[in-house]
From TrEMBL:
Repeat as UniProt keyword: no
Keywords assigned by UniProt, alphabetized: Lyase
Organism: Paludifilum halophilum
GO molecular function, one term: carboxy-lyase activity
Name listed for the protein in its UniProt record: 3-octaprenyl-4-hydroxybenzoate carboxy-lyase
Domain 3-octaprenyl-4-hydroxybenzoate carboxy-lyase-like Rift-related: 101-298
Domain 3-octaprenyl-4-hydroxybenzoate carboxy-lyase-like C-terminal: 306-426
Organism taxonomic ancestry: Bacteria, Bacillati, Bacillota, Bacilli, Bacillales
């Protein structure tokens, strides 16, 4: 799987065709209910398996899920192999490929102005038992900054309120500050929301605008190795992907709020209830025979893009102070942000703890970090646990920093608004390297058990 291709995949239809040919796409032919049942099927495989639902109750459009929840398939969608994702992401942030403007595109083959009921055309799902309603969760939001010159994208959940209205959860301080400045003038904020996009667009949407100040659609183009085409919206002054399947155009209204939540969050707990801004949809554009899309909340498909972006930042940060860093891993079970494993070629005593300090400086959400030698497989939890068990002495190799900032998506942090950080240096002392030689069996890698049974 994976490897460079002569033709780049820039839309989800070509990806569906590619994964059909490689037998990576699971086709669900049984009719499923968008309330609970569809999400339960996706979550059964943790959102790691690309699947297409051919029959969604009440609708005549197919629906895809699980398109970005597996490292190997994520890499394959970009024509590369899994170990290349983080280096490619770093390169794409540094050397993005600008989008190309087109006068029109497939996403505008159909245009509905002033839609009356958003859920007439496309399914809107309820995922968890106590969710406050049905939600759009896979839409990639497009906005401009206050100057109107820079474009930003991010994924935002939107609770359907009925008619042509949703509310929207804004967790980015920069985006909320911008909205409030526009709101203070009594004006709405123009938005567009894209559905049915390739994994590279979802991955790039997780890159920090505050940190890198780079257009994320340009990053997505560099990830796939080809510029992405954009078209101007019909009712708002924004550009969207010409090959997206569906776009909602609209405005975040000033002053008006609607209660949102509870909702099954990334950390597998329910979030609280709070008033959120309201979006009024002014137009829906979509391709002929559109393909709808969802991302199951808290699944691998939601977590993996977050983890990959954090790995890129972590690797870049640690590399500045410990040149011998080999690889990093942000684990998905730990909310794709709370646990990190760092592999280094230890050259000096103190490299392990220096790497840990750099790791915590790279991301306030990081809670526990482990540094291991290069003989430890950081992708194998058993190997990491073995290193902790056999190379860590807590009084010497563990340190704790209390009263630090943490992630609001981590339930124990929210009890007091602060988190403790714990670093574990699971590297062995250089002068004692001989005592930490791992056992090995010559020729073991060539054993074929079938020849012995």
């Amino acid at each position: 799987m994976g490897g460079e291709r002569s033709e780049m995949i820039t839309n989800i239809r070509d990806l569906i065709e590619h994964w059909t040919e490689t037998n990576d796409l699971m086709r669900i032919q049984k009719e499923v209910d968008p309330v609970f049942e569809l999400g339960a099927v996706v979550n059964h495989l943790k959102g790691r398996q690309p699947m297409i639902f051919e029959k969604v109750k009440g609708y005549d459009v197919p629906m895809v899920a699980g398109f970005g929840g597996d490292r190997e398939r994520m890499a394959d969608s970009m024509g590369i192999r899994a170990p290349e994702i983080v280096p490619r992401l770093i390169q794409s942030i540094v050397q993005p490929i600008a989008t190309r403007s087109r006068s029109t595109g497939p996403v505008q083959e159909n245009v509905i102005l002033e839609p009356e009921e958003l859920d007439d055309l496309f399914p809107v799902c309820q995922y968890h038992a106590e969710d406050s309603g049905t939600y759009y969760v896979s839409g990639v939001l497009v906005v401009k900054d206050l100057s109107g010159k820079k474009r930003y994208t991010s994924i935002r959940r939107m609770q359907y309120l009925g008619g042509n209205r949703t509310n929207i959860l804004i967790t980015s301080p920069e985006l909320m500050d911008q909205y409030r400045q526009i709101e203070a003038r009594g004006e709405p904020m123009e938005v567009a929301v894209m559905f049915g996009v390739i994994p590279a667009v979802v991955l790039s949407s997780q890159v920090s605008s505050h940190l890198y100040h780079t257009d994320k659609l340009d990053i997505a183009g560099a990830l796939v190795g080809s510029p992405l085409d954009v078209v101007a919206c019909q009712t708002v002054d924004l550009d969207v992907l010409a090959e997206a399947e569906v776009v909602f155009e609209g405005r975040m209204l000033p002053i008006e709020r609607e209660m949102e939540g509870p909702f099954g969050e990334l950390g597998h707990y329910y979030g609280g209830e709070a008033p959120q801004p309201v979006v009024e949809i002014s137009a829906i554009t979509y391709r002929n025979q559109p393909v709808w899309q969802t991302i199951f909340p808290s699944s691998h498909e939601e977590k993996l893009p977050m983890a990959l972006v954090r790995e890129a930042t972590l690797l870049s940060t640690v590399r500045q102070v410990v040149p011998g860093v080999k690889d990093v891993h942000i684990t998905l079970p730990a909310v794709a942000r709370c646990h990190a494993i760092i592999q280094i070629e230890k050259r000096h005593e103190g490299d392990g703890k220096q790497a840990l300090l750099a790791a915590f400086a790279s991301d306030k959400d990081l809670k526990h970090a482990v540094v291991v030698n290069q003989d430890v497989d950081i992708w194998d939890p058993a190997d990491v646990e073995w290193a902790i068990a056999t190379r860590v002495q807590a009084d010497r190799d563990v340190f704790i920093v209390s009263g630090a900032n943490g992630s609001p998506l981590e339930a124990s942090h929210n009890l007091r608004g602060l988190s403790a950080k714990m670093g574990l240096d699971a590297t062995y002392p250089l002068q004692e390297a001989k005592a930490f030689r791992r056992t090995s069996i010559p020729g073991a890698e060539n054993i074929d058990l079938s020849q012995y049974v």
